[in-house]
Amino acid sequence: MIEVRNIHKSFGDLEVLKGVTCHIKPREVVCVIGPSGSGKSTLLRCVNQLEKVNSGRIYIDGEEVTDPGVNIDKVRQQVGMVFQHFNLFPHKTTLENITLAPIKILKLSKSDAEDRAMQLLGKVGLTDKAQIYPNKLSGGQKQRVAIARALAMQPKVMLFDEPTSALDPEMVGEVLAVMRDLAHEGMTMMVVTHEMGFAREVGHRVLFMDEGGIVEEGTPAHIFDSPQNARTQSFLSKVLRA
Amino acid sequence: MEQLIPGVFASNILQNLTDIHGFQVLTGNFTSFLWGALVTLEITVLAVAFGMVLGLIMGLLKLAQHIKITYALATIYIDFFRGTPLFVQILLLHFGILPWFGDFTAFTSAVVACTLNSGAYIAEIVRAGIKAIDPGQMEAGRSLGMNYRQTMWHIILPQAYKVVIPPLINEFIAMLKDTSLVSIIGVSELTLRGKLVYASSWEPAWVWGAVAVIYFVMTKLLAIFGDYMERRLATG
């Protein structure tokens, strides 16, 4: 579903991705873990071309998205993205946040888009918040709306960029629960996260990144219980100690 | 003793005032000043209204740096009109450039010059307003599959306009005062009327004092309107 071939990405003099290759199969949930600055988020943002790669190729569903001639808007319609800071549209209600893109891009009628949005709000447990503006929602509620907004385009893949990192601890669970449901429904997901519990329980495969490269990858059991690489061991010993 | 009776006292003052030549000049030219103020307001409103359209377009072109030609054009336009005096722009357009395109009245020249000048400043206001919006908003719109134009229109601009209103009111006030410069090409707005009345009356303190008060009332009203808008935007 997603194929990343030897991509390099620099910001000025700083090389953030030093040749990353990975592959995500349909219906697979891949969690990307690693220390801050390891390039996890940049990798994710390269997949839907929010960042342009310096070299290498990325394919989504067989289509090369790194090709300069590609219709990137069309590609992004198939790829949902959830941000660390939610990025809800503050001037629109919860419902309007979700219906905007389906109405403008998929040309759904307002009532069809609203039906779809209400269904998704039901899925994330927020039907009562439809007419509310984002500033009246808690962090966890905002992120659940953001997930519903992305799902409204009926994407084939969902990208999550540290979706719980900006949340108060008591709200992390509600967002992870929504993501877990999504995984069980068979959504293809690429999740950059610091939630090791989630990665272990929900992830089919875990990529450990450090210093701009994938250092180790494998099943959650492999990565968490018997990591082979010294850097993986050192990282996990720090984050799992708590 | 009669000064103690307020009504008589007041009527005496009024009697003395109407005896003053300068005051007579003002009352005699009252309607002329009023029409002048109206022309001033007309030029300002037209210039800022057209300037807003022009400024929005130029501000957006300046932001779309990947389209090199329009970016260069917008940059040259903004730099020129912000980097030269409005006074010179008025003279250049009225005597040097517009005559090539036809026979325009001084009023038209004035509106064109003020529009071009205002548009350059508003372009910068628009650009700053858009830049003030969290880049995450553009990313969120684009990641849903909306193109740049759709995201700008549906997501960014509706948020930017709140940021833009206060500096836009400032521009409005500045432009209202600056229109006094078009008196040089013979548009009979407030300042030119003042000049004419002064020339025939030789009452500089009364005439220019009155002109100043009329400008002040207009800008003060605009400022009050601006405060009201700001409060409404803060709550809404």
How do you describe this structure in short?
The complex is a heterodimer of chains A (242) and B (236). With 242 residues, chain A is an alpha/beta fold.
Structure characterization notes:
The complex is a heterodimer of chains A (242) and B (236). Chain A is of the alpha/beta class and 242 residues long. Chain A has nine helices and ten strands. Chain A has helices at 40-47, 72-76, 94-104, 110-123, 139-151, 169-184, 196-202, 220-225, 230-239; strands spanning 2-11, 14-24, 29-33, 55-60, 63-64, 79-82, 157-161, 188-192, 205-210, 213-218. A six-stranded mixed β-sheet of chain A has the order 6-7-8-3-9-10, with helices on both faces. In chain A, strands 2-1-4-5 form a four-stranded antiparallel β-sheet, with helices on one face. Chain A is globular and about 55 Å long. Chain B has 236 residues and is mainly alpha-helical. Chain B has one domain (31-235): MetI-like (MetI-like fold), CATH 1.10.3720.10. The model of chain B has no long low-confidence stretch (mean pLDDT 93). At the A-B interface, helix 2, strand 6 and helix 3 of A face helix 7 and helix 8 of B.
Whole-Å distance between the termini of chain A? 35 Å
Number of domains of chain B: 1
Low-confidence stretches of chain B: none
- Please trace the helix and strand order of chain A, writing H or E for each element: EEEHEEHEHHHEHEHEEHH
**Largest interface: pair, residues per side:** A-B, 24 and 17 residues
- Cα shape of chain A: globular
Sheet of most strands of chain B: none
Number of E-type strands of chain A: 10
CATH class of chain B: Mainly Alpha
For this structure, the CATH topology of chain B is: MetI-like fold
Class computed from helices, strands and strand pairing of chain B? mainly alpha
Q: What oligomeric arrangement do these chains adopt? A: heterodimer
